[in-house]
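Input record (Table S2, row 306):
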Amino acid sequence: MHTIPQPQPDARPDERLRLSPLVLGLWRAGRVQLPRPRLVELIAASLDVGIDTFDLADIYGNYAGEQAFGDALAASRVPRDRVRLVSKGGVCLVSDARPAHRVKHYDNGAAHLRASLDASLQKLRTDHLDLFLVHRPDFLFDADELADTLRQMVRAGKARHVGVSNFSPSQQRLLAARLPELAANQIELSVLRRAPFEDGTLDLCQEQHCIPMAWSPLGGGALFTADAPDMQRLRTALAEVGEALGSATPDQVALAWLMRHPSGVIPVLGTTDPARVRIAAGAADLRLDRQQWYHIWQAATGCAVA
Ligand SMILES: NC(=O)c1ccc[n+]([C@@H]2O[C@H](COP(=O)([O-])OP(=O)(O)OC[C@H]3O[C@@H](n4cnc5c(N)ncnc54)[C@H](OP(=O)(O)O)[C@@H]3O)[C@@H](O)[C@H]2O)c1
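Output record (NAP complex):
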């Protein structure tokens, strides 16, 4: 079995998290059980356009997605230090792979998260993640216990950085009060899901230098497939701004619209199509001016700002 060569440990706890400007997410790849040659192709296309960060979770592909990705990465013979690996734990599915789970639940307790991280490392054939995220806030999370657990992961060298996902501003603030080095909050964010612009999530990320990672940045594809009249209006606005930016495609504009925010939003792409990965990467070269940004906001909300 090919093992990915490991870099020498050089983690400095105060080193800022660095991810590629766009990240490739593997949720859908796990769901459709993308065959290994297709995964290898997807990894190659991503690296080719500078996307070196891959987003996973223990539960993807009914707990089999990390193994499939780890195998594909090994088959790709990509050195470990050429990629950045993000994974998550904290959601517990009812699954034949987890017979002890009687009900779907969240578990941000120390024992579950530690075991989850260890399993991720084994499946991904690595000794560390670049970023471990608490997938969803457990209503029963104890901030002291969770901060301690995450800090220990970094101290043990198993995660270079730690963060959260789907945490509300108050939950993020609570945990960050115990663990100021929270590196990221992965949230649902797109032209179709704009609440984080207004509910304090992106403000808090900016305040805390915590990277907002945007999941479903293209609305899970609804941006291109839904045919309600307001969606047509939004597509027209994306096309108009794309034209003004020099033939940029609507998906590039929708991603660049997110990346324009000063909190440093990093979109997590969900496509399983290498050609779409290559196109999406072009978003990093676009910069919308204010009026273009608000033109899209207005098309998305259906009204001008007050
Ligand atoms: N933290 C969390 O709780 C959480 C939750 C959900 C997702 N995530 C992460 O976020 C990632 C992205 O989520 P997502 O998959 O919903 O993202 P997305 O990029 O918004 O949606 C991907 C979907 O849109 C389609 N699509 C992309 N570009 C298109 C285009 N130009 N025209 C038509 N269809 C297009 C894709 O189809 P093709 O594959 O055919 O291109 C795919 O079905 C996941 O992989 C996962 O890593 C995290």
